[in-house]
Design brief:
The chain has about 100 residues and is α+β, with helices and mostly antiparallel strands. Helix content is about 45%, strand content about 25%. The protein has a single domain, classed as Alpha-Beta Plaits, CATH 3.30.70. The protein has three helices and four strands; from the N terminus they run βαββαβα. Helix 1 packs antiparallel against helix 2.
Length: about 100
C-alpha cells in the first residue's frame, strides 16, 4: 500500500516547517520507501508497518503541539511493490509519447 499523508500542528503559529520536519524524520528513519513534496509525504509498505510509521510521525508532532491535524489518502493494491516509482514512471512515459 501507499499512503500519502500530511501532519499539521495547530496552535503553533504560521511557521510549521520545523514540526513537519519532525514527522518526516520519523518516516525517513523507518526505512520504508517514501517521498516528500510540498503538500504530502508518501510512504509505501504493508498496512501495519505504514500505519505504525504514520502513528509515530503524528506522535512526534503531537509531542510539541497542542493539537494536530492529519490528512491521509491510501492506495491499497496487494501484490504491487515499488508503486512510488512505477506510478510516476507510467505517467512520465505517457507524457513523453
Amino acid at each position: 500500500m501507499i499512503v500519502a499523508f500530511s501532519v499539521t500542528p495547530l496552535g503553533v503559529g504560521e511557521d510549521v516547517g520545523e514540526y513537519v520536519a519532525d514527522a518526516v524524520r520519523v518516516v525517513r528513519e523507518s526505512g520504508l520507501p517514501n517521498r516528500t513534496d510540498a503538500m504530502f509525504t508518501s510512504v509505501e509498505g504493508e498496512w501495519d508497518e505504514v500505519m505504525d510509521v504514520i502513528k509515530r510521525a503524528v506522535a512526534a508532532v503531537e509531542a510539541r503541539s497542542p493539537r494536530v491535524s492529519v490528512v491521509m489518502k491510501a492506495d491499497i493494491r496487494p501484490g504491487v511493490t515499488d508503486g512510488l516509482t512505477s506510478k510516476v514512471d507510467t505517467v512520465e512515459r505517457h507524457l513523453s509519447a
